[in-house]
Write a structure and sequence with these properties.
- The complex is a heterotrimer of chains A (about 525), B (about 350) and C (about 290).
- Chain A is of the alpha+beta class and about 525 residues long.
- The radius of gyration of chain A is 27 Å and the shape is globular.
- The N and C termini of chain A lie far apart (about 75 Å).
- The longest helix of chain A is centred in the first third of the chain and has 31 residues, at about 5-35.
- In chain A, strand 14, helix 11 (about 380-395) and strand 15 (about 400-405) form a beta-alpha-beta unit.
- In chain A, helix 13 (about 435-445) runs antiparallel to helix 14.
- Chain A contains 15 helices and 19 strands.
- Chain A is about 30% helix and about 20% strand.
- Chain B has about 350 residues and is mainly α.
- In chain B, helix 13 (about 295-300) packs antiparallel against helix 14.
- The longest helix of chain B is centred in the middle third of the chain and has 39 residues, at about 200-235.
- Chain C is elongated and about 75 Å long.
- In chain C, helix 5 packs parallel to helix 8 (about 150-175), helix 5 (about 75-115) packs parallel to helix 12 and helix 7 (about 135-145) packs across helix 8 (about 150-175).
- Chain C contains 12 helices and no strands.
- The chains are: A alpha+beta (about 525), B mainly alpha (about 350), C mainly alpha (about 290).
- Chains A and B meet through helix 1, strand 10, helix 6 and helix 12 of A and helix 2, helix 3, helix 5, helix 8 and helix 10 of B.
Chain lengths: ~525, ~350, ~290
Amino acid sequence: MSYRLFYKKALSRKVGLVGIAVIIIAIVLATMLFPQQSQPKVKSSVVYAYVSDFPTLDPSIAFEDEQVILANVYETLVFYNSSNPSSPLVPWLATSWSYSPDGLVWTFSLRKGVIFHDGTPFNAEAVKFSIERTKRMGLGAAYIWDPVKEIQVVDDYTVKFILQYPAPLAQIASSQYGAWIFSPKIPSNDTDATEWFNQGKDAGTGAFTIESYEAGFQIVLKKFDKYWKGWNGNHIEKVLIKTVRDPTARLQAIKAGEADFTVDLPVDYLPELKNNPNVKVLAIPSYRNLLGMINTKRSPTDNVLVRQALAYAFPYDAVVKSVMQNYAVQSVGPIPQGMLGYFEDMEHYNYNLTKAKELLAKAGYPNGGFTIILTYTSGDQLEKQVAELYKAELEKLNINLDIREMTTKAKYSMARGDPAQAQHILLFYWWPTYVTPYDFLYSLFHSEEKVIFNFAYYYNSTYDDLIDTASKLEGTDLNKALELYRKAQEQVIRDCTALFIIDMDTIMVINSKVHNFKPNSAYTEVVFFYDIWVEA
Amino acid sequence: MASFKSYLVKRIILALIVLYFVVTITFILSHVVPSDPAELYVGPKATKEQRERAVIELGLDKPLYIQYLNYIFGLFKGDLGVSLRAHTPVLHDILAYLPATLEIVIIANIIALFVGILFGTFSALKKDHLEDHLIRFVSVGGVSIPSFWFALLMQLIFFGVLGILPLDGRVSTETQLFNPIKVITGFYTLDALLNLNFPAFIDCLRHLILPAFVLATYPIGLVTRMVRSMMVEVLNENYIRFAKANGFKENLIYYKYALRNALTPALMALGLSFAYSITGAFLVEVIFSWPGLGTYTVNAILENDYPSILGVTIVGTTFYVGVNLLLDIFQAYIDPRVRLK
Amino acid sequence: MKKILSKESEITLKLLSKDKLALFSLAIILFFIILAVFAPYIAPYPEEGEGKPAPERRFLPPSIEHPFGTDYLGRDILSRIIFGARISLSVGIFVVVCAISVGTPIGLIAGYYGGKVDELLMRATDVFLSFPSLLFAIALVASLGPGLFNAMLSLAITWWPWYARLARAQAVSIKEQPFILASKAIGVNDIRIVFKHILPNSLTPIIVQGTMDMSSAILSEAGLSFIGLGAQAPSPEWGLMVSTGRIYLLNYWWFPVFPGLAIFLVALAFNLFGDCLRDILDPKTRKSRGETF
């Protein structure tokens, strides 16, 4: 059999195939060996590699991470400056404000000479329009305007809010959700307008306007020439905010200089970055904490002694030192460190297994012997490590901690069902819509007809009264309000309605050539691009 | 005598029946999901009235069988529902993410075709020699390697250690900012060429190589094995020997008979793996942050966005059923015995 | 018992013992089985293998004390991999055994009786075959909730149709054989015929397929766990370890790389063995699956 001949023929066909393969390989090698032409370092644009995408760009309903974009495109009446906690409220679109003695009428004087991106002038009508639309749509953070009964346009630059009960309206107006002011020249039908916004159109007064938007991937902002603050001095002209979910990719982007800002890097990346001269690692106090809400309506955690034992058994130090590498502190109570309403000296639980055993014995479980369910969020490395560490600790007490990874929606679903079937401990983070202790204390522990976030199922009217009263006083008598807030916190700590685990820093890693970056805890993970400039 | 036409009709009807069951089963599954769709739609801090409004808007107040019928009718119109998270139509989203996936899948399969035929034929020729064993090892390896792990390994080697290829993504930030590709077809490589944007084209290729290569390992393995076994048989076939003995031109024999014999199993293997490529690409896309259907689906899962999950399942399965149908028809066309089944 | 060690099987075993590749892959398989069975005695840090954290020594690179390094909670990765073998092998066995147990009888019955029964059963098979296993698993797990058991269940559900098809093809070809016709003629019960006569003779392709499916099952399950739909923390499941370790690829590469290597080796071993087995037993049984990651 002449295999040789066949071989030759097959070979020539193979040569053809091989030839094509060679050409392809050549192209591939070429692309590898002749990498990207290097571009000149441009100081007119920056890149922010952000961790997630943005469900909507509608300023009335945005309620996830959109403030990263919206805080540069829109503005609120009042600005919250977290670096000055004694007097944080700063004039923004409003130049001054006052309230009546009973706290039910608030008057805001508006800034003159401000124009919306579409050319219409900013005035009281626009304020009334924006807030009424947000209230009417009732989605996202619309609830913050619940105290407002009526909005009156006194004149072009004066607007009056009539409240149905007292509330700290100036603080509310500084919120990073639901308080953005936009031009009335948007489609009149609310849903059409949302669609309009989601296509990448904007109606703000901010320093930047949206140039292009690829939903789910990136957005490009460009400077708004007629911005009321003007453009004297060094400024950025263009911003690209990219969604880069993979932490490895964000790390590489910041290291390679492809991004100038990034957030949410695992703390384990930071040692390497700290030694990198091209970047700066910033640990920004945030108003964010990690909590483990404890189900007070399901056995055995319905017994306060058991709950307290669980709180004593928690490995706070291991979490702070090993998992968070000291980029966090142990929580004292529901209000995070640095925020209004935080009291360092409140009594709280520390890791103490002996005490935990004592309490368990008192509760009737001298040798543990029960199982409780803890849920944590999918994809969250921090929560996962916390869960596994806690599980190992509870094993020492002969308690079986059944840890379950669930998507956010799934874990909420379980928690919003029948409390007797819900998880015993739910791990999640909290941060405020606008800066007030009420946001934490109300959302987390106020009695609710239908469970929204009160995953402890805590129904305590004394507590409710304390915080409701405090909230009404907050705008007018802050000290009294803080007193009441403190009492309320001590109550929930005593009743051990949650594991108050850690108060976390926001870790931002930025290009070391960035100047004038002023991080602000009230605007989570926001970079105000108007303020910064970057050396070439 | 079984006619091709009757077989065709039978198969198509069958495919439609199968699709119907698939849709129904997926619908049932998704409505067993414990989470509350209305709540997902309006968000956790919504008031009771808002939630009730959403329930009506989403049609959740109607009994299950009416929802089911509405869904089926919707499918005919091409309405796959609305994403709970983004409030955009699911079909629209799927079509937006599809080209990215197709780009790597198609290229991966082309690579697999060439390499597979090459390896398979060579292996058959060197049957039982060292080369045969080596290639067999490689092809079985290709089928056994976990794609997500291999992807990570490639990233580690080519990006982490050697630094010659990018880590992930479809284009680099520099291209996005300075040389943005005007999207025409959704296939960035093609679009870059059509725009005569050569730096962007090279950039796209550099980003494509690793994901396409990783995705190609499985089909390469499959194609190699199938081509090899087919070629081994062919080389022993009597009609080849007979043709040679009778002095038929060498070229004629080899190209007309032998090659065609390699092509068929190769295409069959590819067809089978192509159908799965779309789903197999999921894992690869996740690793390379490739913005295709895989990434879309994984995000939908994390968000419990059941209309999106449903939509992808239906589209993916329809595609798979479609490819199988085409394969069967192709096979029936070539081999009449199949029609008797 | 006698049927299993028939002349054919004797020849098979003889050929196997001569095939170096088959022996090599069999050795790997046995190695992992031993790891799985004797895990608590072989693993240097057995409690960590099960999940006990050691936060003081997170991310240690490979060394003599920790040949594969430590993970994000300081646990010895080698020990975790050894314990993970238990999970992977049980998953493979469970899925394959389930799929075979359900699919084979269905296929045999369909093939033997033919007609309406055959049509009905085969259409049902087709519906299941149309589901790409990953999508079905996703849909199933999205409803039932993530977990190792649910993942295994959904894989078994998508897999049985293949065996039904295989068994059916065997039944169809065997039922015309003289010895079957003879049994029927003398009035042997149908069920007896199917299970006592047809079944043993159909085993060959089923076993071959089963061996290779062990590999696919392990790969699929690892893939599901990688996405987060399968095994849950603190389980030492390999796919889960790769997934958790993924973000540390560029800083602490040993964390995702070694567990993935284990998956590869096991899958490779089963596939190689199955491949050799197939070549020896019946070169005409070329079942191309094209299904897994």
